[in-house]
């Protein structure tokens, strides 16, 4: 959940349901449907498959199961919607996997436009209880189900596999050997040989990333034997899209001198980081992949970490830090061409603030690239783009008309406010379009007077940006540039001036936040250093050196002393200057509150931003005022609009067809959207369309765009080559049934072991929360029957005597810090004879608890090893098992189950419940259902003052996190006690800006 934003209104209420035997009414649904014949009438809908290559792909998929890999931007979802339309009959049950919320909304709208009757596509998620799901399964149709809910329903026999006609898998590149989707497909094919499976992907690069035969492996995981490859250079696609080429104007805008200087400096920092990684880790890394060009992509970060994870314990802390720095430097390259100068400089200053000594970082934890000359260039030039001190000579620029007035700024500040070069280029394009519209106005009116209907024509301008942030930025720029020009200022002066004001406010508050957040950590750090000064090693002397030298080798130390001595003072002075500058700005703002007013959160309709008149602010009343609404709102003519939108993938197809723009400006180069424009021009050859393609010349933006095209082409060529030589064996068993249990229980004293009792398939009871991991899938693949349910105690029940609590390394540390592990071990020791704590490592990571570089001569009480020792002393019967990966865990479980009885599902569910909770209705309706809404529960349990003993009581008293955060201090104390209530109240009501 580290990367997810949890809505405050997320309910704690349970939404799932327990396992139950399927009723006899389900047998009324036929287990298999005869595929409808393909006729021309089914393909006559223009909203489904209007293009020839779409129809050809559709016919292939309808006649045979397979994996479709299509180039991005060529209408993959159209083909999926056409297949779903065929199977929308209630006599069939088709399941759609791996579709996100935006894709589901798109598919629903597409199916509705194609004439699919209600209910159409229905979504099954954590808000759908078990009774509703059972009714949906019986009613048939097409369902989109989350993978975790579907696998639990399959294992609990809530949805018998014979009911399923087929499964459509989107984003097939995400399916791997440990994924839940592979688990689902394996169970489906085991129990339903006649059902179909069709998989789709528009990411060919993902199928060549790893392994000797990645495409063959992917097909085996998807339970398929055929692949359909359709790149952009396919003959059918090329002939179809090149029938009518669009009128494209390519515009290459040079970077400003300061932006080019920053770009070169960032590239130098990346080269230095890559060089340092190669020096000490050349034996573990593929050096050919470590290029500056590859570092421009997000997949590069994952690639390096994947190669280093098996030896992560042997990697130095400096290398780990540099690997993370590559992500930061890549973001800087992206933000340079997309962020305005003020926002870009603010982002850089947050990096400096996070690296200062006030943040309780040791010198070894500070990023080495900050001390390079190129790093200093990045920060100095970025600030010079925003403002300079009056003592500094301002670089002259003929394009600058007049800068922002200095009367409203702190003394000694001369604003520069450099605009992005693309802004002015875009303004020129819009001016050219306006002239073009004016020149055609006379001709259009003359044609209309002759009786020809031109109502379908429009002058809509569509501007496509990279993200919503750029869209809002550009909207403000275009809305204020004419006002600025009338005042004799640069076009972006009004917008950048507002951002500069906000920057100074942010800067003054940043010093308070930095002190309040980091001072306590700094004090704790100093205490720790003082207490451990005798045992700790001396700090490292440099950043980009070959490593820390032994104290007895004086010559090697002496060689790097000058560099090391110059790094720390330079970094301290940079941080000190920022702190002094922030304090000056804070003092100025405190003494001039009226000059820099706070930005109002109300909706204002006055162009005068400095006005404090209450009449300029629109207030929301309870009653709807028609006159006030008509004053400020009205209908827009779609034929004369400038629409600014972020690139949104497949949704852009619908946008193009709905608004039918006459002018398309591709502000951010995107390979997929260019192809969508090609498809749009082929669909509507009679509609005029002019395309403007903007790109920074000799920039990272241009290099990334060309690299994406080349990488996709190379990926398809490799896939075509592998397809021609791969061989998938026939009749390969989907699961390996292990017969070792039978051989171990043979009694050789009775007829020499020839008379044996019938051995049943081994069983393991698994808590439903564990299905987010790969272990249940691997256990099932090894021949063990999986029984999912909600367990109050433990994660895995191997036998009536053996209970296992599984912890990853991150979970282990978090459970120790929260005290939850102690409670879990205590409960296992009470109810089971053999409690086990399983510490499981990731299969791609090193099998070590602590890095070699983190070992110290003395072990403190807060070390994880000390806590484990105390845990075993407290619970003598507790056994700790170390597992290197989930595959090893399967073998461990198999050994532990030897000569053990099989666990009982009902008994395992009741263990740990209070007397009042041991009720059939509670178990069937609440206990298991609550596990389908676990994210808010986990977030709640991570809050201070919330323990494993009071979190259920809190959920029974409040509806969601928002309601909990709004409770008073007395209400919280009455609910969970004085101490815990005080901790939780302080957490919700802390304001770091107001702390002293």
How would you sum up this structure, described in words?
By secondary structure, this protein is α/β, with parallel strands linked by helices. It folds into four domains: about 220 residues, 3-Layer(aba) Sandwich (Rossmann fold), CATH 3.40.50.300; about 230 residues, no CATH class; about 140 residues, Rossmann fold, CATH 3.40.50; about 170 residues, 3-Layer(aba) Sandwich (Rossmann fold), CATH 3.40.50. Helices cover about 45% and strands about 10% of the residues. The chain has 35 helices and 22 strands. The strands form five sheets. A seven-stranded parallel β-sheet has the order 3-4-2-5-6-1-7, with helices on both faces. α1 crosses α2 and α12 packs parallel to α16. The longest helix is centred in the middle third of the chain and has 39 residues. The radius of gyration is 32 Å and the shape is globular. The N terminus is likely disordered.
User: What is the CA-atom radius of gyration, in angstroms?
Assistant: 32 Å
Which residue ranges are poorly predicted, with pLDDT under 50 across at least 5 consecutive positions? Answer: 1-47, 525-543, 545-572, 594-621, 916-932
Shape: globular
Tell me the β content. Answer: 5-15%
When the domains are counted, the total is 4
| Biggest sheet: strand arrangement | 3-4-2-5-6-1-7
Strand tally is 22
Distance between the termini: 32 Å
Tally of helical runs: 35
Mean pLDDT, all residues? 77
Largest sheet: 7 strands, parallel
Helix coverage percent? 40-55%
Pairing-aware structural class of the strands and helices? alpha/beta
